[in-house]
Specification:
heterodimer, A: alpha+beta, six-stranded antiparallel β-sheet, 14% strand, elongated, B: mainly alpha
């Protein structure tokens, strides 16, 4: 390390903001990152000038000496990561835009913020939102330092493709994932994507052929999509039941399918399974609400 | 152990001084014996060490010096005996050692622990527990070892059978163990013991909670296989108790054999790495011992697990059974289906293979059931003495039958009977189903011979009675009424004692056959008896109708009407038949007023009936008979005004189609009047009564002769159509009209909407054909061919078929699919129902194709066939002549061509055709070219 940098960092005692820069072969230094680009990080830090006397100092640290940076999470970031639903879409967009260039930096939370924003865009529907979500997911999948984010990003990208109507592309990729993957989580996600595609096809058939039941030409096709949808959504529950989040999600979607085809008995059974077998899942509460609504229905 | 042995070796070195002065009784001196014992001990050869210590005791034990030496070496002797598994012998040595006040702490710790272990080995659990308790309470002892003692303390509860206490103990201690340094493994052992105790204490809820809570920490459990086996045991217990959700919760958390083995192998590798690190560091000896224990336990457990057979299949099968227990056949089937795809065949997989078919059958997923049955037969079909095969084949056949694949089902039933003739009951049932399915295919004679086979070969089987009855039914279907009647009488006699399955049905059939034989008095008696004996039978309403018919045939008007009136209104068809037959009876009796009242009552009672226009017609007929045609017209209008705006009453269209016939009775210009009145009705109905307006406009269009005007009117009517509710006849007519005037978009939309909302309509052929024709018109040959192919696939017996085939052939020819076009046309020519004009057009097209592909000789033959066979279609005949002439010319057969032209010119009916003009020119040209014919010699 260059002597000046070493000197500056030697006396650094931190700053009000708590960004931490991990420097190769040195102790980490705390401060407030004021700027960052490909070549350097501008860090404002506090220096102890004399015992009890402090002064502020800004230093440029070349990125080549930096191992990683741990950014202090701002209030809004904490809110995004912990209570996404309470954050406005504009705030999500703003957080992502201010973080996106840090995606590849180790310890950066940009990927998680990006996914929160992209998921919001997808849930809001609309072609432009879906296209933006697709691009964000793709960026995270390719560039995020955190390999844990790659799978949900890939899944998000496939969901965005579905929303964009590029079903064939999705099917090919998910099929490939399902066939090649030995990783249960990847397999589950691939099947979930395929199930979502099948469910959309089922809905489209019901929409285009309201009398499908009387239609000898359409009925077998509809039944094929219906069974395929259920088989795929139930996959994690039946084969990886200890993967609680995925199983509960699959069951909830199976309940949605049954509800869609007005098979209330099986819809209730799926909701009951969630409540009894996956009490810690996020789907427990909607499942209970669904069951209560059924009890109220005469 | 190594560290403690070093400490002990140092400890005893001090006590060995002065032994050299002892006498030498045998091969070794006392000093040598002790030196050798200690050396062997240091080298880890504990058996030799023990032997030297024992020799020392035996040879020199009496001397006070030796006693002192022995006392000083007691820790070594104790450890030798412990290591050599002699716990009972070790105990006094341990106790002596522990009583030594100067015993170093490390040795005291080791021996105290082994003292407790020894007590446990001797099944003295109570004392062992106290010993472990004391060990745990000594704060100076190694913390990790104290945690282990705590686990052993709990283990003693388990060994004493205090399962409830053990469970409570572990429940309290597991969180503390987990927090302790290096305590996660002990916590894992605690979890396994707690689970065992809870199951033993029959606290299944507690056990399930533990499984669910501890599953995320599964990585801490070195005895993972035991944990999973206990979860399996718990799941099985819940299955026994029919608590399937709980069973699923347990079974879902059990890993596959492969995953378990892989995980534990990795774990052993990891522990061995940790061991290597610990062995290199003298400060980690205690950890080393702990790791050794973990490796030993994991390896032993893994070895045992490897001996377990069918683990995965048993697990998956149990899970499937749990779902089946909850009547969740879909879930059960999916699990078992996956088993069959991924697991090697074994007895459990085989049972599952049968169960999966049953599950698919249960949820009526017939294709899956058939596929699963085929898979089973493929995998297990060759297994000798396989008792499941007939059952599986039966399910396969039943599924085929449910899918209406009657022929395949029938063949499968037959095959079952042929393959398993020794299984009388099964074979008889199979052959009966073969006969029954043959009957379903209207092969009555064949069915009779199959039923006869049962009566001969399987006369003891329960299906014999079924076969006898259904043979009678086959005779009835064959219209051999006398034979059927005799057969059914025999049936009633033969099986009277053994219990008649089909008594009512047979009695009805006898009455039915008697009626069909026109033996009305006998039929009246039999039908009356049947109605008296079986008032709730399925054939009652048909019997009442037949009774009415029989009475009328005998001239018993009153009785006949009474029989008809007794028909249940809910049996729609029989009830309406009865109503109309009463009307017919009144007509025969010339009770015109009553007849009118009767049909007016019908209109009031069931206006939604499809036979409503028929009733209106008969009302009109009564007025016409009484010379009041205006009144006949009035009833039509009254009905139209009352029900004309109700889109669900499709019979209104029939009524409108019948109106011109009634109007014609009013005079020569009555149809114009009808047109005007319909136009007025349409205008009056307006937007408020759109269905009525639509119907009036449509009906008016039917009366218009000018095609263009008619089609424009239909297109206008099409705008009023709501395809979801309106009669597909209206939609098809309006779509055809729109297509005819070139508004293809409107036509297309109407056809597609009709297809969407009326998928089983009789007019669907018009939608498929219309879509094909309009695509042809747009120049989209591929799309048009696709619609025409769907037409051929989906439509049965449509009058549009020849037009469709012709159009399709033209397109195929255009697309270069010549062979397909030829094949389509040849099929058309073979069809006897096709009109001669269409055949003539097909022949021309076919001949044109042959010209195109250079097969002129074939072409001239086809052209000739047209003017020889289809003479009445003059425009086609003229064209055929000309085309044949041109082809002959191209073949340089000029004289023959000339003769063909001459023949055409000789046809008086074709003289004005444009082909005749062309023929005249060609003939004139040829005349100049042809050499004069030789005079006959």
């Amino acid at each position: 390390m260059r002597p000046v940098l070493a000197f500056v960092l030697l006396f650094a005692v931190g700053a009000a903001a708590e960004d931490i820069v991990y420097i190769k072969n040195q102790d980490p230094v705390e401060g407030e990152i004021q700027a960052i680009d490909e070549e350097k990080v501008t860090l404002k830090t506090t220096i102890e000038l004399a015992p009890g006397q402090f002064g502020a100092r800004t230093v440029n640290i070349p990125t080549q000496f930096i191992e990683s940076i741990e950014f202090e999470e701002s209030e809004i970031e904490k809110q995004i990561l912990e209570r996404t639903a309470e954050v406005e879409t504009t705030e999500l967009a703003s957080a992502w835009n201010s973080k996106r260039f840090l995606l590849h930096r180790p310890k950066s939370n940009a990927g998680k913020i990006g996914m929160a924003y992209a998921n919001r865009l997808l849930d809001s529907g609309g072609q432009i939102g879906s296209q933006t979500a697709f691009e964000i997911f793709q960026l995270i999948e390719n560039d995020d330092w955190n390999s844990e984010n790659k799978l949900p990003a890939r899944q998000g990208r496939l969901r965005a493709l579905i929303a964009l109507g590029k079903i064939d592309e999705v099917i090919d990729e998910a099929q490939e994932m399902a066939e090649d993957s030995k990783d249960p989580l990847l397999l589950i996600e691939a099947k979930f994507v395929l199930a979502s595609v099948e469910f959309d096809k089922l809905k489209a058939i019901h929409d285009e052929h309201p009398k499908w039941m009387e239609d000898d030409e359409v009925k077998p096709i509809r039944n094929q999509h219906y069974h395929q949808t259920l088989d795929l959504f139930l996959f994690p529950y039946l084969f990886y039941g200890s993967e609680e989040a995925a199983s509960a999600r699959g069951l909830w979607m199976a309940k949605e399918v049954y509800h869609f085809v007005e098979d209330e008995q099986n819809a209730i059974r799926c909701a009951e399974d969630i409540v009894r077998l996956y009490p810690n899942s996020t789907f427990k509460s909607p499942a209970e609400s669904f069951l209560n609504s059924r009890k109220e229905t005469p | 152990m190594i560290r403690i042995f070093n400490i002990i070796a140092t400890f005893v070195l001090f006590g060995s001084c002065g032994l050299a002065q002892l006498p030498k009784p045998g091969a070794f001196t006392a000093e040598e014996l002790l030196a050798r014992a200690r050396e062997a001990f240091r080298n880890g050869d504990f058996q030799t060490a023990e032997a030297f210590f024992e020799a020392f005791d035996r040879d020199f034990g009496q001397s006070p010096e030796a006693r002192q030496a022995i006392e000083q070496n007691t820790p070594l002797i104790a450890l030798c005996k412990i290591t050599n598994g002699k716990f009972a012998e070790a105990r006094p040595w341990i106790e002596i050692s522990l009583n030594q006040p100067k015993l170093p702490l490390e040795i005291r710790e080791e021996l105290s622990f082994w003292q407790a272990i020894g007590l446990m080995q001797d099944a003295n659990y109570r004392e062992a527990q106290h010993a472990f308790g004391r060990f745990f309470q000594e704060p100076k002892f190694d913390a990790a070892k104290r945690q282990e003692a705590l686990v052993m303390f709990g283990t003693c509860y388990v060994l004493q059978g205090y399962h409830k206490t053990a469970a409570e103990f572990f429940a309290a201690q597991i969180p503390k163990l987990r927090q302790a340094e290096s305590g996660r493994e002990n916590a894992g052992r605690g979890v396994v013991l707690a689970l065992f105790s809870l199951i033993q204490a029959e606290n299944y809820e507690g056990a399930l909670k533990l499984v669910q809570a501890e599953y995320p920490n599964i990585g801490d459990i070195s005895q993972l296989v035991s944990f999973q086996n206990l979860a399996l045991q718990l799941g099985s217990k819940f299955m026994e108790l029919e608590r399937y959700h709980e069973a699923v919760a347990c079974l879902q958390r059990i890993w596959s054999r492969e995953r378990l083995l892989e995980y534990q192998d990795d774990r052993i590798d990891e522990l061995k790495l940790q061991r290597a690190v610990a062995a290199a560091d003298p400060r980690m000896q205690s950890r080393l011992l702990q790791i050794d224990g973990m490796i030993k336990r994991t390896e032993r457990e893994l070895e045992n697990f490897k001996q377990t057979e069918n683990f995965d299949s048993a697990l998956r099968f149990r899970l499937a059974m749990a779902f089946q227990g909850m009547e969740r056949y879909h879930e059960a089937a999916l699990i078992m289906e996956a088993m069959l795809q991924t697991m090697e065949p074994d007895p459990v997989v085989e049972s599952a293979s049968v169960a999966v078919i049953q599950c698919w059958m249960e949820i009526e997923r017939w294709p899956k059931a058939i596929e699963a049955a085929e898979n089973y037969l493929q995998v297990f079909g060759d297994k000798p003495d396989n008792k499941h095969i007939p059952q599986v084949m039966f399910m396969q056949a039943d599924a085929l039958l449910q899918m209406q694949k009657i022929d395949e089902a029938s063949s499968t039933y037959k095959l079952i009977a042929e393959l398993f003739p020794d299984q009388q009951l099964l074979a008889a049932k199979a052959i009966f189903m073969h006969g029954y399915t043959t009957l379903l295919q209207n092969q009555n004679d064949r069915a009779i011979s199959i039923f006869d086979q049962i009566l001969t070969d399987y006369d003891d089987a329960p299906t014999e009675q079924d076969a006898f009855y259904w043979k009678g039914m086959a005779l009835s279907f064959k219209k051999e009424y006398q034979a059927c009647r005799e057969h059914m009488r025999n049936y009633l006699n033969l099986y009277a004692d053994s219990g008649l399955k089909y008594k009512a049905e047979a009695e009805f059939r006898i009455a039915f056959c008697t009626f069909c034989e026109a033996e009305y008095p006998a039929a009246i008696q039999l039908l009356s008896d049947f109605l008296e004996n079986h008032p709730g039978g399925v054939d009652v309403n048909e019997a009442k109708l037949l009774l009415g018919d029989a009475h009328l045939a005998e001239g018993n008007l009153e009785e006949g009407v009474a029989a008809y009136k007794s028909i249940d209104p809910y049996s729609t068809q029989f009830f309406e038949d009865g109503w109309f037959k009463i009307g017919k009876a009144l007509k025969l009796a010339e009770e015109i007023e009553s007849m009118r009242e009767h049909f007016l009552e019908f209109l009031e009672t069931i206006p939604e009936s499809n036979r409503m226009p028929e009733a209106v017609y008969w009302i009109g007929w009564t007025h016409v008979t009484q010379d009041a045609p205006e009144k006949a017209v009035e009833i039509y209008w009254e009905t139209l005004r009352t029900h004309g705006d109700n889109p669900e009453m499709f019979a209104i269209e029939d009524l409108l189609l019948a109106m011109p016939k009634v109007y014609r009775r009013l005079g020569p210009e009555s149809l114009e009047r009808l047109q005007e009145e319909l136009n007025r009705l349409a205008n009056e109905a307006g937007e408020e009564k759109q269905t009525l307006a639509l119907r009036a406009t449509w009906a008016r269009a039917q009366l218009i002769e000018n095609e263009e005007y008619r089609n424009n009117l239909l297109t206008r009517a099409g705008a009023m159509i709501d395809p979801e509710v309106h009669n597909p006849l209206l939609i098809a007519d309006c779509a055809d009209g729109a297509r005819a005037i070139g508004t293809l978009g409107i036509a297309e939309n109407l056809y597609l909407e009709m297809r969407k909302w009326h998928p089983n309509s009789l007019y669907l052929d018009r939608a498929f054909a219309g879509l094909g024709f309009l695509e042809k018109e747009r120049g989209n040959a591929a799309a048009a061919i696709s619609w025409f192919e769907r037409f051929e696939e989906k439509v049965f017996a449509s009058s549009l078929l020849p037009e469709v085939i012709l159009a399709k052939s033209e397109l195929q020819l255009q697309e270069g699919e010549t062979q397909k076009a030829i094949s389509s046309l040849e099929t058309l020519l073979e069809d006897k129902t096709v009109s001669s004009q269409t055949k003539a057009r097909a022949l021309i097209l076919l001949a044109d194709i042959f010209v195109q592909i250079g097969e002129d000789e074939k072409a001239i033959a086809y052209y000739e066939r047209i003017y020889l066979i289809y003479r009445k279609h003059s425009e086609l005949v003229a064209s055929a002549y000309l085309k044949r002439g041109l082809t002959l010319e191209r073949m340089s057969l000029h004289r023959e061509a000339y003769e063909v032209y001459q023949e055409l010119l000789a046809c008086e009916d074709l003289v004005t055709s444009k082909e005749s003009g062309e023929a005249r020119r060609r003939a004139a040209d040829l005349e100049l070219k042809l050499p004069p014919e030789d005079e006959p010699q």
